[in-house]
């Protein structure tokens, strides 16, 4: 079975985003022999580029499935154009405002009700809410992507989050009242650190020495990201959104239990290469342990970053950690990347040289 997986270039300046277009099946045959999937739509202005990409390179206006990983603007906003300008059959998106039962007890203010929390979530996540309404108005089938959900082809599967884990994250979403039990200090500090631009420091790396750590913490909304896997002819392709270590460990449990016999061929480096979303122990589970200098395995690791996202996106320490394990690392830097097998050629698209190992680099101290 052929496939082409396209990471579109998102972010002309320093703000990174995700927009991924996928086609699989008999790519030399008719549209009926193919499945088209979109994972995230980038910013608002990414939507038009994504629509044009599907029409031009996939030769269709019909999309079988659109998945929104989580309701951040760099993943969500472009999907409005996709829904309006393409014939979308199915839309997977979380609807946290419908998961409000029992939430009122999680907050300090005793006047809060489950109903008011649901209304507050719908207002805070107004863009996501409006996309659900738009899809329903167009008679698009809308489903919530929790672990175990598969598409009609059986190729696309959600590995995480589970319903229970997702609902445990909702009280920590932005814009909600103060919780009765405060979030961990690490999670609060993570948000602060990401918002503050720090001084740069020079780092000297040695092959095999990971400079990422197992205690990285990301936001609840990032951890709510849909973790999606495609399995084609014994090959696995893993898409992580902005998931953090906690969420990805749960997905790794599913992989260990049910998918270990299928070979990983592609992994999306989570959250644009942030150092808080991946750790060495988790990477060992997903990719395997360190290889010898210059050795590679048959896995491509792709990270979506803005044209001028460095040094924050991507972190060179994260790229090195994937390279330590033999993955061939590719970075969009505002340009498109195509991973392909048994598909028609494209004019203007040529093979890329993987990211070199970074023995010296600068990074923000925070």
Automatic annotation (TrEMBL):
UniProt xrefs under InterPro entries: Competence_DNA_uptake, Metallo-B-lactamas, RibonucZ/Hydroxyglut_hydro
Domain of life, per lineage: Bacteria
Entry-linked SUPFAM superfamilies: Metallo-hydrolase/oxidoreductase
Record domain Metallo-beta-lactamase: where: 33-107
PANTHER family: DNA INTERNALIZATION/COMPETENCE PROTEIN COMEC/REC2, RECOMBINATION PROTEIN 2
Protein name: Metallo-beta-lactamase superfamily protein
Species of origin: Thalassolituus maritimus
